[in-house]
Amino acid sequence: MFGSRKKVVPVQTYGSPVLKTLAAPVNGITPEIMTLADEMIESMFAFDGIGLAAPQIGISLRLVTLAIPNQLPDDYEPSPGELRLLPLMPLALVNPVILSFGKDKSLYEEGCLSVPEIYAEVERPTKVMLQAEIIGHGPVMVECGGLLSRCIQHEIDHLDGKLFVERLTPDNLNKVKRQLDRLYELGQKNKFQRTKK
Q1: Distance (Å, rounded) from C-alpha 182 to C-alpha 8?
Q2: Quick check: helix, strand or coil at residue 176?
Q3: Would you name the residues annotated as active-site residues?
Q4: CA–CA dist 9, 128 (Å, integer)
Q5: Domain ranges of the chain
Q6: What is the pLDDT of residues 167-196, one digit of tens each?
Q7: Is 112 helix (H, G, I), strand (E, B) or coil?
């Protein structure tokens, strides 16, 4: 999409130290950053994801890629962010920041490429005000709703060293605890990486 070199890179899994680390800001959109974004998009698609943060591939930088589907229900009123960003998918957000959260919240089942095959409901605000630089499209500051809002929150959590399972209620966390323990044990054997075969 941005550069010429494309490769699928391994995804860090639950237990990897980089997933608990606060990511550093990106200091400019260099050719290396564009190549990294390219590889993240390629890897995101290879692992059937709709979002990927750089720490998930072992690079502690504030860079996120998204590929939210652009199909919205006929009776749905999209946010300004959905109208502006969904047609640009896939895209890469550099140094994304949530400036504010909406008051309304909703529960929705989330999964994560770094926590494979584990799904649970997470409560999050339904709308956020996003500020970021979009590679190839410049700066943006826009209110985002729907799945776009949720994915932005999920991926920025990664940049702040937080996984979605840390946002679960005690009951919901208890339901997936055994799976998480197994995933951690498997991760120890595989250096906390999953590769695409």
Answers
A1: 25
A2: helix
A3: 155
A4: 30
A5: 11-194
A6: 999 999 999 999 999 999 999 999 999 998
A7: strand
> In Å, how far from its chain's centre is CA 129?
16
Query: Using an 8 Å Cβ cutoff, are 172 and 121 in contact?
Result: yes
Three-state DSSP at 179 gives helix
The tens digit of pLDDT for each residue in 92-120 reads: 999 999 999 999 999 999 999 999 999 99
Cβ neighbours for 124, distance < 8 A, ≥ 6 positions apart: 105, 106, 108, 149, 150, 153, 154, 167
Task: Write the DSSP assignment of 114-169 as a string of letters.
Answer: TEEEEEEEEEEES-EEEEEEETTTEEEEEEE-HHHHHHHHHHHHHHTT--GGGGS-
How far is 76 from 79, CA to CA, in rounded Å?
Answer: 9
Q: What is the CATH number of domain 11-194?
A: 3.90.45.10
